[in-house]
Write a structure and sequence with these properties.
The chain is mainly beta and 146 residues long. The chain contains two helices and nine strands, in the order βαβββββαβββ.
Length: 146
């Protein structure tokens, strides 16, 4: 049985940077709050905006089955992450729908987080769109075999 973990959190913790570090960033407070084991990588995607543009960094993430992806708000705008289910492979679409992760609620506060688990996910490309201020921005999570 696959347990879904789609949570939107507002935690008062310090962020980690994707730059200059080997491997994906981790977040000890997030691990503790959600009970994520130490051996499960947490990949971070930051959401922000400037002027009339939404920024997603990195827009493309490579992970393994079982990893966790955290979308984190870095501004005071509203951002909505949704997976492009109509464009996904049937197995990928079914996984997102069956785990309730296809269309999470919007992020509305600075430092809010959307946490998605890929425990039991089929390998493939999980294309998503971030909507908010300005034009939507596309991205993807590529899930590989362990």
């Amino acid at each position: 049985m696959v347990a879904a973990l789609v949570l939107i959190l507002t935690l008062g913790v310090t962020g980690t940077s994707c730059e200059g570090v080997g491997g994906p960033p981790s977040d000890p407070e997030l691990r503790e709050a959600l009970g994520i084991a130490d051996d499960i990588p947490i990949h971070q995607v930051t959401l922000s905006g400037r002027g009339d543009r939404t920024r997603v960094f990195p827009a493309h993430v490579q992970i393994q089955v079982g990893d966790v992806v955290q979308f984190r708000m870095m501004d005071h705008r509203v951002h909505r992450v949704r997976f492009s289910v109509d464009e996904l492979e049937p197995e990928v679409r079914e996984f997102l729908r069956s785990t309730g992760q296809a269309s999470p609620a919007p992020l509305t506060e600075l430092d809010a987080r959307l946490v998605i688990t890929f425990d039991g996910a089929p390998p493939g490309e999980y294309r998503f769109v971030v909507e908010g201020f300005g034009n939507p921005v596309e991205g993807s999570i590529r899930v590989g075999d362990s």
